[in-house]
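Below is one such record:
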Amino acid sequence: MTETTATPEIIVSFEDVRMKDFRAYWQAVARNDWQGQDAFFAKVVKQWPFAGDPSNAGAYGELSVEEYFTVQRAIRVQSTQ
């Protein structure tokens, strides 16, 4: 997959993702492991309009709930294209 704007402000790319990363993400989802999910998000989100660096997994904990859901939605949209 190429880098694509999933929303006007969030750029997501799966170019660096390997199957082991994808499997680790879904394992994190199944365990409700937010840190594991954030680590995957930090790998695929290249740009966002929020404070903090999207390549830093710790930045996701500083987002509002609405911002976090916006990021999730952007990743979901891109992953189904």
